[in-house]
């Protein structure tokens, strides 16, 4: 099984480009660790190699994922998240602990957070919605990425109009968070929820706009009609 990790890392290094590393770094405030491989090629490599291991036990694939995550390379983390998402038909309740450990231990920037949480954990939550209560616990974490994860995990369900009550409860918990990455995370979640529940989200924003950070507010109302945006942005 370790041979596949060696093979993938060899391919990543063969396709590494210093210019790509500089290009990627521009999107992050924190220093990132990257081979310098463009995302479409990383996805292609991930999917090609998954064909060789998809018959393996889920536990063994998760072990491979964890090895990639330990490296802290962006591209390797994306491969781990792609593989974990590909196993969605085999998710079990006990997998939440694995995913939670990965968020707390290995997520160190917004791209890792959003890629992993939007797809892998978001899909898990749709299958096992009882774990939303765990997301609400995440909102109290000292780790900014865990707090952001509590919101962005529900992005894809929100697009379907799901979990509105829980979305508002998570937003309540994150409402005055001082971290801009967290503000953008829950603001994004409210924006997506507004696609199916515009009035409810607008009412929520109007009720909280005096204390909601402007960053979160702007994200939340971004797709609303101009008149609604103007009303929400108006100072009292």
Number of helices: 15
Number of strands: 0
Largest sheet: none
Q: Report the radius of gyration as a whole number of Å.
A: 19 Å
Shape verdict: globular
Along the chain, the helix and strand elements come as HHHHHHHHHHHHHHH
Let me know the average pLDDT: 96
> How many angstroms does the end-to-end distance come to?
61 Å
List low-confidence stretches: none
- Proportion of helical residues: over 70%
Strand content: under 5%
Briefly note the structural class of the backbone: mainly alpha
Summary tags:
globular, mainly alpha, 236 residues
Explained architecture:
This protein has 236 residues and is an all-alpha fold. It contains 15 helices and no strands. The protein has helices spanning 2-14, 18-25, 39-53, 58-71, 74-86, 95-106, 110-127, 132-138, 144-152, 155-159, 164-174, 180-193, 198-208, 214-221, 226-233. Helix 12 (180-193) packs parallel to helix 14. The protein is globular and about 60 Å long. The mean pLDDT is 96.
Q: In terms of topology, how is this protein built?
A:
Blueprint: H1 2-14, H2 18-25, H3 39-53, H4 58-71, H5 74-86, H6 95-106, H7 110-127, H8 132-138, H9 144-152, H10 155-159, H11 164-174, H12 180-193, H13 198-208, H14 214-221, H15 226-233
């Amino acid at each position: 099984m370790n041979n596949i990790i060696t093979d993938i890392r060899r391919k990543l290094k063969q396709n590494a480009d210093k210019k790509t590393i500089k290009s990627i770094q521009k999107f992050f405030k924190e220093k990132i660790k990257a081979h310098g491989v463009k995302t479409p090629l990383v996805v292609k490599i991930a999917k090609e190699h998954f064909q060789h291991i998809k018959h393996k036990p889920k536990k063994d694939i998760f072990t491979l994922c964890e090895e990639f995550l330990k490296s802290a390379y962006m591209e390797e983390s994306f491969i781990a998240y792609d593989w974990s998402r590909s196993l969605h038909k085999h998710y079990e309740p006990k997998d939440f602990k694995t995913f939670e450990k990965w968020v707390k231990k290995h997520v160190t920037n917004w791209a890792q957070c959003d890629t992993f949480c939007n797809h892998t954990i978001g899909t898990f939550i749709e299958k096992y919605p009882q774990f939303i209560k765990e997301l609400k616990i995440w909102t109290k974490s000292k780790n900014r990425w865990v707090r952001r994860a509590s919101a962005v995990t529900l992005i894809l369900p929100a697009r379907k109009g799901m979990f509105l009550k829980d979305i508002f409860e998570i937003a309540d918990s994150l409402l005055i968070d001082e971290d801009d990455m967290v503000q953008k995370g829950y603001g994004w979640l409210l924006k997506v929820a507004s696609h199916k529940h515009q009035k409810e989200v607008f009412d929520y924003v109007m009720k909280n706009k005096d204390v909601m950070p402007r960053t979160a507010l702007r994200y939340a109302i971004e797709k609303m009609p101009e008149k609604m945006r103007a009303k929400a942005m108006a100072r009292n």
